[in-house]
Every structure is written in structure tokens, then in C-alpha cells.
Amino acid sequence: MSKIDEICKYLDAKFSSDGKIQSDIKELFVYRASVPTEFLTGVYEPALCMVFKGSKLAKVGNDFYEYDEQHYLLAATHIPAVAKIKGCPYLAIKINFELEDILGVIESIGGAESKKGKFAGLALGVVDDELLEAVFKFIRLLERPNDAKFLAKLAIKEILYILLKGENGDFLRQYAMLETIENRVTRAAKEIKSNYTEAINIENLAKKLGISASSLYHNFKRITALSPLQFQKKIRLEKAKNLLINQNLDAAEAAFAVGYASPSQFNREYSKMFGMPPKAHVLAITGA
Q1: For 182-206, how does the pLDDT look when each residue is reduced to its tens digit (9 = 90+)?
Q2: What total number of domains does the chain contain?
Q3: What is the tens place of the pLDDT at every residue in 229-266?
Q4: What CATH number did the domain enclosing 264 receive?
Q5: Which residues of 256-282 are buried (b: 16+ CB within 10 A; e: fewer)?
Q6: How far apart are CA 9 and CA 53, in angstroms?
Q7: Transmembrane region positions (predicted)?
Q8: Nearest-angstrom CA–CA distance, 118 and 120
Q9: Based on the domain organization, do 116 and 214 belong to the same domain?
């Protein structure tokens, strides 16, 4: 039995329902699907995404990223995207991490600085046996909940160490090292995401990060394919969608909750992003 088959057997025994499943380890999410999907909106965050059955296609701007059993996806910052499940049955995981975790590993092992270059916010890599073994070891911590509270972070650092040694080492270093533009954009995206209801002041944010407003704007758009204001709009609308579905708010309530002053503007922008007005979209998703 291959390592991927072992992982599939293990996950199949623990997670049988379709959908996105938060595991008992807070950094680990499991995804299952029985049928392909159309492109759906979402936001990637710093994470390793691995597929053990099927395949998924993500699109950021004009760039496409397809990952499957042989290829993983790395996200180094918060990236609004559209993605669809192509091959089914689909079984995948996401392991969240913080850039501080990468920096901690870099400081522990030392080594060469990253090669200077312009990196997108997502990267693909080839899955190998060493990575699979480390990931499976992390997943199996589900059997040891008391130990997982301590060992999960160590297991994630082992996974990051393997990734840093591999083809995407420079990609990860560039986002983790504090002086790089990629790291500054990542911190800007994180701040906007954390304070999405508040108005953005690009000048103040750029000053806080130690760069010019024009540099922040240009590089933010290069990495995320969105301007800071467009990024905030995507975050607000994703949050609003979740409120509409999970908390049964009406459109006006959701609009005000995520920072809109005008419900009519919210309705226009929601319809443009999701292809239908809020009420119709909720009905299409939930059937109620």
C-alpha cells in the first residue's frame, strides 16, 4: 500500500461527510467532495494544501494553479481566489501555518538567504515521500489529542523544514523574512483582513510597514491580483456571505455588519461577485 493510500484509508475512516471539516487539531482541515464543482469564491491563507484523491484548480487574476496527488499548493499570504474541484471523489487537507513559524525554522537551521525575485502569493510543488511521511505523522496526532496540543506545532515545523529544503524554499523565505516586500504585503493583507470593517488609509498603512504608498499599492496588486481596496471588498463580501448563511441575517444587516454604509451598494457588489443577489444566493446554497 502506498503512503497516499494509507493516508486516504486513515482519513476515510475518520471523516466520511462531504464538505469542509475542522479537525480536532486547529491547524488541520479536511475537505471531501463526491461531485465536481463550478468555480467558487474563497480566500486562501498561509497554508499547505494537499490532495490525496481527485484534483482542484485555483485561479488568481490570470494565473491558474492545478493541484492533485502529485502536486501540492502553498499559499504564503491571504489571497482571494476562485477555485473548483475537478476530479472526484475528492479528498484533501489544508495545514495552516504562520509566517512566524517559517521564520523560526529559518533562524534555527540558518542557511543561505533567498534568491531575490518576484514571487506570486501561491506556488505549486511536487509531492515526495519525505513530505508525505511528515504530513501523515502530523495527521495521526488526531489519535493523541493531549499530545497534539504540544506536538502539532513541532510537526508543522518539521513540514516547513522539508518545504524550505525543497523547490519552494526561496518562495517561503521571501515571504517570511521581515525586510522583503512580500512580507510587507503579507502583513498589509493580514491587517486589512483583521480590520475589514474599517476604512483603509493606504498612506498610514504604508508608513507603518516602512514603504511608500505607491510601492505598497503596486506590489499588493502584483501578489494578490487585487488593489488593497478590492481585496477588502472581497473579504467583506465573503464575510457577509457567511453571515447570511450561518447567522440568518438579512442583506441590510449583513451589509452593516461587514462595514458597508449603503445596503444598495452592498447588493450591487454582492451580485457582481457571486452572480446573484444575496437572498437568491443563500437560497441557491441552502435551498431554504
Answers
A1: 999 999 999 999 999 999 999 999 9
A2: 3
A3: 999 999 999 999 999 999 989 999 999 999 999 999 99
A4: 1.10.10.60
A5: bbbbbeebeebbebbeebbeeebeebb
A6: 11
A7: none
A8: 7
A9: no
Q: Is the pTM of this model over 0.85?
A: yes
Specify the CATH number for the domain of residue 150. 2.60.120
Q: What's the pLDDT band for 179 if we cut at 50, 70, 90?
A: confident
Rounded Cα–Cα distance for residues 31 and 105 (Å) = 28
Query: What domain range is 269 assigned to?
Result: 230-286
Q: What would the grid cell of residue 277 be?
A: 443577489
Asked if 234 and 132 sit in the same domain, the reply is no
